[in-house]
Amino acid sequence: MSDGSLDQAILAMARDSALLERVRQDPAGGAAELGITQEWAETIIRGDRDRLRSAGVNDGVTILVSRWFKDDIGDSTSEGKLHVDTETPLPPKDLPTGLVFAGGASHVPDLLARPEIDPEEGVQRLLAGYERMAADLRAADPDVILVTADCHFQSFATQHYVVGTAGSHGGSMEFFKRPDLDLELTGSPQMAEHIVAAVREADLEVEEAPRIDLDHGLIVPLRLMLPRPDVPVVPIITQPHRSFSPFGARAFGAAMRAAVERSGLRVAMLATGGLSHWLDPGKFGGVDVEFDTYLLEMLRAGRGNDIANLEPYPLLDHGQYEFPNWLIMLGLVGPGVRGEVYTYEPMEASGGGWTVVRMQIEEES
After folding, report:
1. What is the 3-state secondary structure (H, E, C) of 92-157?
2. Are 334 and 250 in contact, with CB atoms under 8 Å apart?
3. Which of 9, 29, 82, 362 has the CA that lies 20 to 30 A from 185?
4. Do residues 91 and 77 make contact, with C-beta atoms less than 8 angstroms apart?
5. Ranges of the chain with pLDDT below 50
6. 195 vs 82: CA distance, rounded Å
7. How far, rounded to the nearest angstrom, does the alpha carbon of residue 18 sit from its chain's CA centroid?
8. Measured between alpha carbons, how far is 282 from 331 in angstroms, rounded to an integer?
9. Distances (CA, A) of 132 to 37, 223, 316, 363
10. What are the DSSP E strand ranges found in the chain?
11. Looking at residue 365, what is its pLDDT?
């Protein structure tokens, strides 16, 4: 449940002590009065901040259920762990018309530039995941591919998300001493303009870029998975070093739904980056397997969109600064869509938890 009803219910109880007491005495009746389920009413009365945080209720609200509703100054029943909700029924899928593929994959440069630094078995499993998703992408036969990546070696004019509007995009992995690992892509100025217009119609900001220099963020996944050399690609670049908003990333993706539907094209959406990955001095090489597993379980459970309701700190603290790339994709796909994890490999030498995940957008039998 991530539509704000839990927040509103808790705030209503905080403002009305009689209502709070009614919910305590009769959770079923109180839940009906508040417009939430009895299970969630009992969760609130129980003071279960962990589950509320996992559902996307911000800490400023969840603290009410322990410190005020239960007078538990020490939060004694909360452990600070995030939980995957496997009990609340998923909403029905509501995919944008024209979306034929969606998935996410890491863009680890060493996978192509220096694969020998990681365990060979792990590298092979990771490559097998890319190969499997490459087959899915070919089978989807898209007219255009939208690809998210974060800004690495380019500077833009604003702090906003950036849409590449050019008719072609090129670059190489020269900064990894591998200029031979290059890529030239066909762009789609018309699709890019559809995206820019749709995002602005949603009252969100976006930067149009006539030039996107390709680096490993786009070169690695597309060299491994581009279904054919001439398929047009629209790069969408995030700038987490300038702005970081999980909620904003999902909103940006949701705004793109109108662009996909207006285009009349068969559209594929590929998110790149992550999972846990630190570039901080002294932290490179760290892998947060526990939090990576939480994110993957959320995707498997069809709760990927709920990750955007987390406050930024939990993601940043666990090395997930690239996850907005995925949240744009998840916002486009919409809620209720499960992910299938093709592979997950924690690799300290190349510096992260690497994964390949396909979203199950097809109709379920």
Report:
1. CCCCCCCEEEEEEECCCCHHHHCHHHCCHHHHHHHHHHHHHHHHHHHHHCCCEEEEEEECCCCCCC
2. no
3. 362
4. no
5. 1-2, 365
6. 34
7. 40
8. 33
9. 40, 14, 30, 20
10. 99-105, 144-150, 161-164, 168-173, 178-186, 206-209, 213-214, 233-238, 267-272, 339-347, 352-359
11. 37
Structure tokens at 301: 């459970």
Neighbours of 332 (CB within 10 A): 26
The pLDDT assigned to 111 comes to: 95
Q: What amino acid is encoded at 14 in this protein?
A: A
Cα(328)–Cα(351) distance, integer angstroms: 23
Measured distance between the N- and C-terminal CA atoms of the chain, rounded to whole angstroms: 25
The pLDDT of residue 2: 47
Strands of the sheet with 168-173, listed across from one edge = 178-186, 168-173, 213-214
Task: Give the rounded distance of the alpha carbon of 209 from its chain centre.
Answer: 23
What pLDDT score does 62 carry? 85
Its pTM stands at: 0.87
pLDDT at 364: 53
168: left (phi over 0), alpha (psi -120 to 50) or beta: beta
Please tell me the CATH superfamily of domain 99-359, with its number: LigB-like (3.40.830.10)
Distance of CA 88 to the CA centre of its chain: 21
- The pLDDT tens digits for 56-77 are 787 788 888 887 787 776 666 6
Strand partners of residue 171 = 183, 214
DSSP letter (8 states) at residue 90: P
